[in-house]
Amino acid sequence: MLAATAALAFFPARALADKLPATRPAAVNLFVSPAGDDANAGDEAHPFASLEQARDTARRIRQAQPDAAMNIWLLAGIHRRTHSFVLDAADSGIPSAPVTYGARPGQAVRLSGGQPLDRAWFTPTHDSAILSRIVDPAARTQIMQVDLKAHGVADLGEIRRRGYSKNDLGGTPPPQLYVNGRRMILARWPNPNDQQPGLTNPFVKPRRGVVTRAAIIDPGPKFGEPGYADRGPIYKCAFDRPQHWSKADDIWLDGIFNASWEWSYNRVARIDPVAKAIAMRYGECMGVADTYSGDFFFAENLIEELDRPGEYWIDRATGILYLFPPADFDKPGVGIELTALSEPMLSLAKASHVAFRGLALAFGRGMAAQVAEGEGITFDQCDIRHFAAGGVALKGKALGLRACRLQGIGGTAVALAGGDPLTLEPGGCFVEDCEILDTGWYHRVYHPAIAFSGVGQRASHNRIQGHPHMGLRVAGNDQLVEANDIGEVCSEFSDMGAIYVYTGSDPYMRGNIIRGNYIHDLGRFPMQNGVYPDNATMGVLIERNLFARIGGGPGASSNSRAVNNNSGAHILTRDNIFIDCPTPYLLSAHSGGAHFEKHTAEWKKAFADHPLAGMPHAQRYPELLKFWEEQRQYPTINTYERNLIWNPTRPLLKNWQRGKKEPLPLVDGSVAEYDGLRRSDNWTAPQDPGFANAAAGDYALKPGAAVFAHIPGFTPIAFHEVGPRGPIGAPGAGTRSMESLP
Fold first, then answer.
1. Nearest-CA neighbor of 679 among 717, 640, 644, 642?
2. pLDDT digit string (tens) for 351-390?
3. Are 487 and 466 in contact (CB under 8 A)?
4. Which of 252, 281, 300 is the last residue of a domain?
5. Domain end: 277, 300, 323, which one?
6. Residue 2: which pLDDT band, with cuts at 50, 70 and 90?
7. Which of 428, 431, 358, 363 is nearest to 392 (CA)?
């Protein structure tokens, strides 16, 4: 609210210190407008032009009145940012009197890191040398161009190596082009919805917009081997498209060249069109091999492939951007932005008790906000869109997001870190009642919608949809994932989970809870799981979740599991509902053997570095006292109880088989590859077990539902409480008027 009482009057910024009363002062209000002037007084009639002026004025006032709450109101319009807005300890509030940066109620406010491009700057392309390179003759008549350097755009960035682990060389993402708030596509082949011949690997066949190699001519060096940074693998292709790319000198391949998790973005060093061979610039982290996941990739940054509406290409030598315009390019008020800001838009270090409310943040090459060593920093009803490197990274105590919308983020949308892993003091960081949509397009693996680390963070009542890899990544202790709606994630890569828990290398990381979530509609490709405790993860509670349509749909793989417990221990799975999941639960032996021996060495080091007797973990997780008694080649302490299984349209698998091993039967929807699972009181329903309206997607259980008789003590998900509980995002942030603001 702008003012709760008449006492919250608006004070001019100048000479306030001598006017404030000795008792608790009223809130001080400063104003910032795109049409303001930093020489102004900073009241609503005479606002500042910059956040920096408001910040510095607030510092001076708080030195005299440290108990005064401080409101910095941003007035309607677009506030352009060319560098980070920085706050530190001197800009802190106190719990009873925070500092708030907020949109003036009723007004649409955006902080933008974009460079606006005027539609009138775009002209038809007539350069025959350029047009003749475009493969599709019909596209040549459609191309528009703009001279970026002539209009003051000097920093065109650099396309860089990135990908899994050591494949990522870091650096700031290059500028991206947006039209009416939609990200345009860097010219590529194949186009996203094209299907090419020669895709025969069963892991690759359903995919569109990719091709596959025909053979490996030279696997190239792995990380740590000589030449890794100087030369890469050489592939033989089954296609002849590269014959058109002889004049291109900065081609990149985006895809999988080994295991499913090792996504890579690697530059082409040279092409031999006669031999149909492509040599890469850099080595691949784990080398190149024909593995179970199959290879698939596409090529981009090619003006030769500028052939679909919404594609673009930048000639960095001349500074000219070429665009195949989208359908709405000539509509009145079209908004065209090129991302320019390379720093975090908001950068806070050691600041406390600061709130950001009702703001829209958009169009950055870097991150939206980075908070380090802070306390009590919150983002409320903010709208955060179109940042390439990532969204909001929070590290500290009691930091969080409420009712925010994050959309089109290129990497991790929200990272939460805090707490002390030695004392188990919680960080108390959170993301709640938020919506996270269509993320992970720049950093495509291991950059989830939400990432946990440290101790005692929480993600609750969020909606997460549209992500190529994991939806949430859980590491650390005592993290809570509760009442979230998670769908259509793991959409491109295999051997992953909507909620991925990987703590097996550290025996002290336990106490994580996954409760009351609705996890649904994934598993188009193999090994895309619902909840995935991987590689000997321990101490996870998976309860009262609803898993729906995980694998086995039309044209989809049945080799996906609602819960995939990969050789874990003390994982309790109870009171869950599985609907149309061919494999509700798998206890996998994959992390046994040599992999388990590797973990044993890591565990011994962990106990040696931090003796259990001096840590609180023995009281919090008493099973640790018997750790070495329990450990064998495969741990045996896992429980699967009071779970409901119903498969009205997708058949439940009868047997499970890995490779050439003997098939194993599913028991109550579960299969165990070794003797490590305790089962009790599960029920496979032959018909609707009592949902309110399953046909309409209402999976709340009616009073007196049959499941309660078949599973005594069954406690179901509170289905109607899943997802955000109120309005989301900054008012007006996603409207047409916001996109086209001057």
1. 640
2. 999 999 999 999 999 999 999 999 999 999 999 999 999 9
3. no
4. 300
5. 300
6. very low
7. 431
